[in-house]
Design a protein that fits this description.
Elements lengths: L30 H13 L2 E5 L6 H12 L7 E5 L9 H9 L9 H8 L5 E6 L5 H14 L3 E7 L9 E4 L5 H15 L9 H10 L4 H8 L7 H15 L8 H15 L3 H9 L9 H8 L7 H13 L4 E4 L4 E4 L2 H13 L3 H22 L4 H10 L1 H12 L6 H17 L2 H13 L7 H16 L3 H18 L2 H11 L8 H18 L2 H16 L4 H17 L3 H17 L3 H15 L5 H17 L3 H17 L8 H12 L2 H11 L10 H16 L3 H18 L2 H15 L4 H18 L5 H14 L3 H18 L8 H15 L3 H9 L3 H9 L17 H11 L4 H8 L3 H15 L4 H12 L5
Parallel strand pairs: 1-4, 1-5, 2-3, 3-4
Antiparallel strand pairs: 6-7
């Protein structure tokens, strides 16, 4: 199952029918039944089709679902529960099929109900009987919360929910039974003359009580037996069942007799394979059948295909054609019968052992291949996941320690991480760890590493850090460098929110080990985390250079997760350094890369940054629309951990002038503050909250948030947060102390210039223009406003709607003040480049510029290069250490030589050694 992110636009328009099984054989009869159930569905919101296995519940529901699409603007959604093993999975399976975002750490049922509240849809739940309590609870909650939802369920017994309309599926009528037999007989014996055998065929259909599955089982034998022989065999089989258990209903005895008769006619080889198929859950491949059902390991593929074909011909196995391969499955009724035969043969344990061995080998191979061809192996492992889950449940529930089961859980962790299947993955990993908590083996280390990985993507940061520590300790003892590398890059995630240097150090350590041992994931994700730690400190050129390597490698080997996050570093650089159109393009590219993963963390986090870029580029409504599915999810889960969403949603609402909504989201964003008061996401909300409160005329509260932004910006080393906080402080004192406001605005501009975050030069120019207008410097104000307008046009960064009215009022006053001179002054300002406008704004202020020559003229990166030359590193070694290319190292050295008036590396090493004290800066 590979759910797509449905409704990513946030629009509640028509949705397609999703997952309704295609009909592979002709649908016979049931005209009256269809009309009756359709009337019932129109009058009642819950209809349950009941009856024994094989009576046609699923086929009838399938046809009803197809006929219902046009009247359901929210779509028709088909959920096959056959292979779902535990009740707690039901709501998450529904959400996954519907592509609904669920926070991995939140109880899913009520969250799902809230997200679907406004939808007018039909939900079809097939095969509820083994999950009756969970299905009843979910249906009850959904119907109460979602007035536009109707539910069609199939089950061998009613759900027992208030308002349920139970409709027992009847046997086929005589003529329908005859038509069904004729149709299915023609599949195995084309041209079968049903008219020549009508009496026998009618007798057969009556003998099996018009049960569709029993009729199909009988018809499958017409190529080998005459109808009279089939009739005679069925009579014998039914007579043997006549003395069956008193509690067995006649129709159950009839179906069992039909299957027993059909089974007895199979060749011995076919009977052996048939009963061994019972160990499979959900669908299975030909390769799996060869490995699990053959006596001496995989035989010739053609032999097993021949057996499977015969079983398909006998209607004992169902063919399901997928997107990439043909898969097979047993109907639940048939699987239960096969398992009884498997137990009788004494082969249950050996068959389950072979099943576990096969899926362990597949999972361990898939774990490696996920680093080379993620799309293919994500699909392969998804298609086999029902069987992996069955093997894990059997092994972990046996009470015995089987190292193969623990290895299987460890091997699947990377897949669960990529898919975002956190809830299920954590459950299996924890159960596997609990088998022996004191174990210090490499397998135990891998299990703890898996918990750390899933903790990261679900926001369980403390748990992720603790699990990584466990895994690091074990991997150090066991010598498992791959686990160590992966845990280091996972451990880098938590300090990203409050200690960028620590994040960078851990990420680079993990990257270096990954590069040395050839582990692509730790190598590339380490670079991504290092790049984010640089980007958060507004070192965007360095961040882009580091991330580009991870992006290119991730794209080459099909790692959507790494590639998408790496591409978002380009988005940040473009967004903050003056190229909003490029930022939007990078956001769209990142979304296209990551969306097929369908997971909450990767899709959602990159979507948030893409929406922020759209908003900064002027499409605030589009940014909010793109976030609508996640907003609905968060509304239902107040405690959901959502990386970056509160910042983006809050700022978009602020820029649009929706102050109440902005306050709601930005205030939530500050709740992630750590005990020591430093948190990157909370810091990004502070200046926005100050802006909201300032506009709501609550200056004292606004001042506290602005001061907090300044403090956090300094503590974290974030120029953007610092500058935004300074600007807010300036706005707050503008009316009472314009001179102090001017100082603060200039300080904010200086911070922005030093960091190179050019986009926000325009905001500083607007602020300084407003200050100039308020203090009577009208011509300067017009020039700065015009230069800002030109810069915004060039960068694709329009003024935010919330600021437009104030700017328009000031410009109207300036037009009046300058009269006919306004346009010429405006044109002068509009002709200025952004840098010239900044120079104009700061002229005469004695601002400290970096000198053109000497040690003080060196940039921070140039100083690092110089110190590494003193250490004796070559250009390639310096490039590796700083994550820059050899060409870039040469360029930095050329600048250093010119500024210090020296000629070569030897002279630089001598001079720098004295100046830098042996390389320390």
């Amino acid at each position: 199952m590979a759910p797509k992110v449905v409704g990513a636009s946030g629009e509640a328009g028509p949705l397609p029918t999703s997952g309704v099984p295609a009909e592979l054989t002709t649908f016979i009869g049931r005209t009256g039944e269809l009309e009756e159930v359709e009337r019932l569905l129109a009058a009642r919101r819950l209809v349950t089709l009941t009856g024994i296995g094989g009576c046609g519940k699923t086929r009838l529901a399938t046809r009803l679902a197809d006929r219902s699409e046009s009247g359901r603007p929210g779509g028709v959604w088909w959920i096959d529960l056959t292979s779902v093993g535990e009740g707690e999975q039901v709501a998450r399976v529904v959400a996954s099929v519907m592509g609904v975002f669920l926070d991995p750490d939140t109880e899913p049922l009520h969250l799902l109900a809230g997200l679907l509240r406004e939808r007018h849809l039909l939900l079809c739940l097939d095969n509820c009987e083994h999950l009756l309590a969970a299905c009843a609870e979910m249906v009850n909650v959904l119907l109460r919360a979602c007035p536009g939802m109707s539910i069609l369920a199939t089950s061998r017994e009613p759900l027992g929910v208030p308002g349920e309309a139970v409709w027992r599926v009847p046997s086929l009528r005589d003529e329908e039974s005859l038509s069904l037999f004729a149709d299915r007989a023609a599949l195995v014996a084309p041209g079968f003359p049903v008219d020549d055998h009508e009496a026998d065929v009618r007798a057969i259909c009556r003998r099996v009580d018009g049960i569709p599955l029993a009729i199909e089982l009988a018809a499958a034998w017409v190529r080998m037996l005459s109808p009279s022989q089939i009739r005679s065999g069925l009579d014998t089989s039914m007579n043997l069942l006549a003395g069956g258990p008193r509690g067995a209903l006649p129709r159950h005895r009839t179906l069992s007799g039909s299957m027993a008769w059909s089974h007895a006619l199979l060749e011995e080889d076919d009977r052996v394979v048939f009963r061994r198929l019972a160990v499979f859950a959900g669908s299975f491949s030909l390769e799996a059948v060869q490995a699990v059902c053959a006596d001496d390991g995989p035989g010739p593929p053609q032999d097993m295909l021949t057996v499977l074909t015969r079983l398909v011909d006998k209607s004992l196995v169902v063919v399901r054609e997928g997107e990439a391969d043909v898969r097979y499955r047993l109907l639940d009724t048939v699987r239960q019968y096969a398992e009884e035969r498997l137990r009788e043969a004494g082969e249950l344990t050996s068959a389950r052992d072979r099943h576990l061995d096969y899926y362990l080998a597949l999972a361990e191979h898939g774990e490696r291949e996920l680093d080379r061809d993620q799309d293919t192996w994500r699909r392969i492992l998804s298609s086999h996941h029902d069987n992996v889950a069955a093997a894990l449940n059997r092994g972990l529930g046996s009470g015995l320690r089987d190292e193969r089961v623990r290895r299987l859980a460890a091997a699947m962790a990377r897949f669960w991480f990529v898919r975002g299947w956190v809830h299920e993955g954590l459950r299996y990993l924890r159960r596997a760890i609990a088998v022996d908590r004191a174990d210090g083996s490499a397998v135990q280390g891998r299990l703890w590493c898996g918990v750390a990985m899933l903790g990261m993507v679900s926001g369980r940061l403390d748990q992720a850090a603790e699990s990584a520590e466990h895994a690091l300790a074990i991997s150090g003892e066991s010598g498992d460098d791959r686990t160590r590398a992966r845990c280091l890059v996972m451990a880098a995630y938590r300090p990203f929110f409050f200690d960028f240097q620590r994040c960078h150090s851990l990420a680079i350590e993990g990257h270096e080990i990954g590069r040395r041992i050839g582990d692509p994931f730790s190598r590339d994700w380490g670079l991504v985390m290092a790049a984010y730690s640089l980007s958060a400190r507004d070192r965007h050129d360095e961040a882009v250079e580091v991330a580009r390597r991870a992006f290119e490698e991730g794209l080459r080997r099909g790692d959507r997760f790494c590639a998408a996050f790496a591409r978002t570093i380009d988005l940040f650089a473009a967004m903050y350094c003056g190229d909003l159109r490029g930022a939007v393009s990078f956001g769209e590219e990142s979304q296209a890369i990551v969306e097929p993963l369908g997971d909450y963390f990767a899709v959602g986090t990159n979507l948030a940054q893409a929406a922020l870029a759209r908003g900064m580029a002027g499409d605030i409504p589009g940014g909010l629309r793109s976030l609508a599915p996640v907003i609905r999810m968060i509304d239902q889960a107040p405690d959901a951990h959502v990386v970056g969403y509160m910042v983006t949603i809050g700022l978009l609402h602020l820029w649009a002038g929706d102050l109440d909504d902005a306050w709601h989201w930005l205030d939530r964003g500050t709740r992630s503050l750590t005990p020591d008061g430093s948190d990157w996401m909370a810091a990004r909300c502070m200046a926005g909250l100050s802006g909201v409160l300032r506009r709501l005329d609550r200056p004292e509260e606004a001042g506290r948030y602005a001061a907090r932004a300044v403090a956090l910006g300094r503590d974290l080393g974030s120029s953007m947060v610092l500058a935004d906080g300074l600007a807010e402080q300036a706005f707050l004192v503008a009316g009472s102390d314009p001179g102090r406001a001017l100082e603060l605005h200039h300080e904010a501009l200086t911070v922005r210039r030093t960091a190179g975050i050019r986009t926000f030069y325009a905001d500083s120019l607007d602020a300084l223009a407003g200050n100039a207008a308020a203090t009577g410097r009208h011509a300067l104000a017009v020039r700065l406003y015009a230069a800002s307008a030109a810069g915004r046009e060039q960068m694709g960064y329009p003024r935010r709607p919330v600021d437009d009215p104030d700017a328009a009022t000031v410009l109207d006053a300036l037009r009046s003040a300058l009269d006919e001179g306004f346009q010429a002054t405006w044109d002068e300002g509009f002709a200025l480049s952004l840098d010239d406008a900044v120079a104009l704004a700061t002229r005469g202020r004695g601002t400290r510029e970096r000198p053109p020559i000497g040690w003080e003229s060196l940039t921070p990166t140039e100083l690092k290069v110089a110190s590494l030359v003193v250490e004796g590193l070559t250009n390639p070694e310096i490039g590796d250490r700083l994550f820059i290319s050899r060409t870039t190292v040469k360029t930095h050295l050329a600048h250093i030589y010119r500024k210090l008036d020296i000629g070569n590396r030897v002279e630089l090493a001598r001079v720098a050694g004295t100046r830098l004290g042996g390389g320390s800066t």
